[in-house]
Write a structure and sequence with these properties.
The protein is of the alpha+beta class. α4 runs antiparallel to α5.
C-alpha cells in the first residue's frame, strides 16, 4: 500500500509541475498589459556570459502599457536595447541613456483572436501532458499486483486527480483568454 501512496503522490507532483510549466509558458503570451515576464526570454551577453535582462536591471511598470528597464550598469543599456530589438516581442525600445522604455501598442481584435488560439494550443498541450502522467501512474498501479478492488479504486483516484488538474488548466487558460480579450 505504501507503494500505491507513493505512486499517487508522485503523479500529483508531476501534474502540478506540468501545470506550473504551462503557467510559465502562458506568461510569455503578451496581453494588452505590460508585464515584466515579457522580458524573461531576453538574454544579453554580459561580461562574456549570456544573462537574463532581469538579472542585470530593475524592471518596473510605470503605466499599464509601459515597461521601464534600468540597468544596474549603464554600459549595458545598448546591449539590452539591441537584444529587445532582435527579439520576437515586436517592440521598439526607447533608450534615454539611463534606461530603456518599452511602450506596448494596443492590440488589434485580430491579434487578440490569434493569441487566444495560441493559448488554446498551449492549453491542449498541457492537458496532454497531464493525461500522459495519468497513463504512467495507471501503468505503475497495474504493476503493483494489487487485489482487483484496490486496483480499481486506485485507478479511480488517479482519474479524479486528473480531472481536477485538467479543470485547473482550463481555468488558467480561461483567465488568460479573458485578459487577452479585455481592452
Amino acid at each position: 500500500m505504501e507503494e500505491l501512496e507513493m505512486t499517487l503522490l508522485e503523479a500529483e507532483d508531476r501534474m502540478d509541475k506540468a501545470i506550473q510549466a504551462f503557467e510559465r509558458e502562458l506568461s510569455t503570451v503578451r496581453t494588452g498589459r505590460a508585464s515584466a515576464s515579457l522580458l524573461d526570454s531576453i538574454m544579453i551577453e554580459y561580461y562574456g556570459v549570456m544573462t537574463p535582462v532581469k538579472n542585470i536591471a530593475s524592471i518596473t511598470i510605470p503605466e499599464a502599457n509601459q515597461i521601464y528597464i534600468k540597468p544596474f550598469d549603464k554600459s549595458s543599456c545598448k546591449d539590452i536595447e539591441r537584444a529587445i530589438s532582435a527579439s520576437s516581442l515586436g517592440l521598439t525600445p526607447q533608450n534615454d541613456s539611463v534606461g530603456i522604455r518599452l511602450i506596448l501598442p494596443q492590440m488589434t481584435e485580430e491579434r487578440r483572436r490569434e493569441l487566444t488560439k495560441v493559448v488554446g494550443k498551449m492549453e491542449e498541450q498541457a492537458k496532454v501532458n497531464v493525461r500522459n502522467i495519468r497513463r504512467d501512474a495507471n501503468d505503475e498501479v497495474k504493476k503493483l499486483d494489487l487485489p482487483e478492488d484496490d486496483e480499481k479504486g486506485a485507478l479511480e483516484d488517479i482519474q479524479k486527480l486528473t480531472d481536477k488538474k485538467i479543470a485547473a488548466v482550463e481555468e488558467i487558460s480561461a483567465r488568460k483568454n479573458k485578459d487577452l480579450m479585455s481592452i
